[in-house]
Fold this protein.
Amino acid sequence: MTVRLHGQKIAVLMESDFYEPEILYYQRRFAEEGAEVHFLTRLWGNQQITFTGHEHRMPFTVEESFEELDEYALKDYSAVIVPSGIVADRLRYTEDPAVLPPATALLRRAFADPAIVKGIICHGMWLVAPVPQVIRGRRAVVHNNLLGDLKNMGGVYVDEDVVVDADLVTARTGNHCHLFARTIIDELVQRSGSPVRQPA
């Protein structure tokens, strides 16, 4: 078996009401290519939080916080993914309306670095709503329920299941997670230019 993402790290943001088949697919598919998959959330001072899925109430425990990622730690990630489901809606909560939600602030920092691939699928675009400037003029696809949101952000809707616009990869729904993941993998391989390795 060939390994195409050896040594690369991928961040997947997490909260409750995630789409179980999608998250499980990322957990296995990226690792299959040799990447480290890190599920990150806002831990609220806890050592870990166990979230539950939307369809089957499947538990999923997260022990890593994105709030601890400084500029150098963020650059260690080749891609940051905002999954489907209600994850983005939960992550865009802020206690102070004058302050960006921490997850949105992280995403804004990621958008400032073109070396990091940003993957946003389905309702994930909700997390970008407070910083529409990062999407303005960019080609993207979203769930049909978010067409108005994308338009209000100034994004350019493309009626395709997966859309690539430079360092931004978007996909229509959680059911397209396999196409989405494959596209992100291909983008990372192309960007790295590294030879394919055989696992030890």
User: Anything to note?
Assistant: The chain has a mean pLDDT of 94. The first strand starts at residue 9 and ends at 13. Residues 13 and 40 are 5 Å apart (CA to CA).
